[in-house]
Amino acid sequence: MDSIKIFAPATVANVACGFDIFGFAVDAPGDEVIVRKRTDKQIVITQITGDEGKLTYDISKNTVSVPILKYLQYTQISEGFDIELHKKMPLGSGLGSSSASSVAGVFAVNELLGKPLVSKDLLPFSMEGERVACGSAHADNVAPALLGGFVVVRSYNPLDVFKVPTPSELFVTIVHPDIEVNTKDARHILRNEVSMKNTIAQMGNVAGMIAGLMQADYQLIANSMIDFIIEPVRAILIPEFFEVKNAALDAGALGCSISGAGPSIFAFSKGLETAEKVGIAMKSSFEKVGIIANAYVSGINQEGPKIIG
Amino acid sequence: MDSIKIFAPATVANVACGFDIFGFAVDAPGDEVIVRKRTDKQIVITQITGDEGKLTYDISKNTVSVPILKYLQYTQISEGFDIELHKKMPLGSGLGSSSASSVAGVFAVNELLGKPLVSKDLLPFSMEGERVACGSAHADNVAPALLGGFVVVRSYNPLDVFKVPTPSELFVTIVHPDIEVNTKDARHILRNEVSMKNTIAQMGNVAGMIAGLMQADYQLIANSMIDFIIEPVRAILIPEFFEVKNAALDAGALGCSISGAGPSIFAFSKGLETAEKVGIAMKSSFEKVGIIANAYVSGINQEGPKIIG
Description:
The structure is a homodimer of 309-residue chains. Chain A has 309 residues and is of the alpha+beta class. Chain A is 34% helix and 27% strand. In chain A, the strands form 2 sheets. In chain A, strands 1, 2, 3, 4, 5, 6 and 12 form a 7-stranded mixed β-sheet that branches. Chain A has a 4-stranded antiparallel β-sheet with strand order 9-10-7-11, with helices on both faces. In chain A, α1 (66-75) packs parallel to α2 (97-112), α1 runs antiparallel to α3 and α2 runs antiparallel to α3. Chain A is globular, with a radius of gyration of 19 Å. Chain A starts with a strand and ends with a strand. Chains A, B: Keywords: Amino-acid biosynthesis, ATP-binding, Cytoplasm, Kinase, Nucleotide-binding, Threonine biosynthesis, Transferase. Chains A, B: Its EC number is 2.7.1.39. Chains A, B: Residues 70-149 form the GHMP kinase N-terminal domain.
């Protein structure tokens, strides 16, 4: 095998109450990366599409190539690759766009080389793509993009992530409004301290979310989708956030919050039909004030990256 | 039925990472309460044993009678009862002593009256006993004493608690050193703010503990038994804390932390044999510096209060 085409999924990080520790993968959208072996030892980004010219071809700065460089350094494998990156989701959308590219690239190279490492071991390299994109090596998008499913980043030092089973009737609606929020800004407006009261309330919801997912207790999931720490601060960066959230809840969503750093907003629903209704309601709530928005409805993607060619 | 004798269990609150939200019940120790119907409408505490004379017979101030008064007020039942309270565990030990008494009393009265309320509905009344004991109506001891098992207090407003299944080979060792820590002091030394970094790390462990318990993943339970927020502060109130903790870990415990506000220290182990070894190691660590300590080894009590006569 000399070339491979990989799809890696978009991801929703934070998931209301789990700032920096929760994330899950969706079936769509996602990025596509094609990697081809070269006869020399060069790493070359040959094509980038879907980025409106915003991403660099510099392999030391692009989120698709940095994890590959780190991977080759770690495994001491000396091979060259051409990389095509096809962005199939908006940049800076809060959907883990950079993570999808990071994961797709390093997953592709690992496959082409005959899988010297198991998927989970690709995580540290993929996280280096996050560092390029947002300044720090977060795992809450990368880990679910790589492993699929609903993932908890229990600890960063040492790095420890695990998957949580999710109920089969849990569907997600993601609405991406056509506005820009910079991930670095979204981090900078957060406070460095949290009140003990909010910490306790948030821990209660984190526990509730895990138990709710594992027991397929939709009411417990709904009750636990309250964010006392991040949403109240970041919501101000997203025009119409509370109107859109209320529209989702009114349409039957279990809960609704910001996807990652925003501006995308996600909602959980029980059943595909409700999730679709919720999408229409959220989209139309944005459109009422003239903001164009795309809606995606999906189950929880359990697979992570996949070979599509 | 004119009289009843109830056992209600000791409880371990906080459970390392779950300050104010986690608690579980043990098989022993526990308090015993005897309640007898009176022919008049009076509520009278007729006998208290095991308290070294420290508890009041004033029904408006004793943790065993206050929940009963609130219960009768709420249900608008006009009956009189004699109450005997037999403390079978040390006061101010961090083992939920006041909660056991609160739960035993109101559970007894509800049984004697033919169970007008289900157990879970007794929680708000039992919490009023906590308010008398420590100034605020916490639920992390009362809820597991009442419901049995490992309990999460997801939210206080509205009050929402749920049980988490625990693995059958999970045993607890509790060591109570003969020193005094006042619960109010133990609360007052806590800061009102938590760093964002510690909040995130603690949430990761809360998620890990719930998933570890539900999946019987003992390694995940062990990894998650790290408290970044409370233990570092309260440990200074307990002489030899870190030596005792290290002794527990060296003897094979999964993890070890302060029980409630202390001074009791608890450890989780996989298997009864390890839990017993851990108890010997912890006790002897205290005794090395001349502190007398009692050790208890138990499974997780799934039953809560029980009728014993």
